[in-house]
Inverse folding.
């Protein structure tokens, strides 16, 4: 009987790892999802936060997980905050830049501006 809970726990951990590693399939405008840093941010999305998770398989505590936001489909005039670890999508302009600890995406962080405020212009 002890094997069943252990097997369920192992399967749950494996499922969570695959969920983190996969890019969002069909995100709605404004949706935020989480993925491992090794997964490229899809077109039309921006990084909005970085952190660490042992489920993404690194041995150090360097940022290895990110939250990404779907921007495609948001109306003109929408303003969002995004990490400078990705380029802003077509139709979006940078209106300001600033530093935030939630956008530290390097194991050698600095206090330089690492985030943008973006506005949809077309």
């Amino acid at each position: 009987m002890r094997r069943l809970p252990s097997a369920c726990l192992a399967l749950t951990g494996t499922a969570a790892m695959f969920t983190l590693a996969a890019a969002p399939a069909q995100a709605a405008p404004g949706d935020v999802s989480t993925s491992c840093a090794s997964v490229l941010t899809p077109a039309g999305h921006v990084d909005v936060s970085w952190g660490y998770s042992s489920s993404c398989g690194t041995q150090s505590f360097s940022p290895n997980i990110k939250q990404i936001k779907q921007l495609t489909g948001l109306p003109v005039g929408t303003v969002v905050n995004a990490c400078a670890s990705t380029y802003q999508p077509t139709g979006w302009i940078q209106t300001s830049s600033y530093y935030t600890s939630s956008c530290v995406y390097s194991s050698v962080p600095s206090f330089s501006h690492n985030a943008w405020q973006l506005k949809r212009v077309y």
About this structure: Helices lie at 3-21.
